[in-house]
Backbone:
């Protein structure tokens, strides 16, 4: 699994008992939460949007995703 596909803040379902959650934890962790790409893009978006300097929101969002992809590319080296 590449870093881009891993989850940052995985969630475990609260509608099952604790023992069942433990036995299924890896399955649950792989199916819920933010991916690292989504997390990094959100962090870039937060930083860039604090000083947009006349750039459109669409441009800032696109740049955030590109920065996230570049960071992940570097981390995968």
Residues:
């Amino acid at each position: 699994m590449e870093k881009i596909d891993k989850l940052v803040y995985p969630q475990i379902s609260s509608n099952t008992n604790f023992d069942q959650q433990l036995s299924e934890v890896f399955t649950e962790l792989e199916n819920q939460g933010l991916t690292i790409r989504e997390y990094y893009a959100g962090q870039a978006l937060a930083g860039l949007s604090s000083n947009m300097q006349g750039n459109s929101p669409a441009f800032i969002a696109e740049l955030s995703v590109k920065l996230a992809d570049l960071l992940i590319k570097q981390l995968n080296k």
Observations:
- The chain has one domain: 3-75.
- Residues 3-75 form one domain.
- The chain has four helices and no strands.
- The two ends are 14 Å apart (CA to CA).
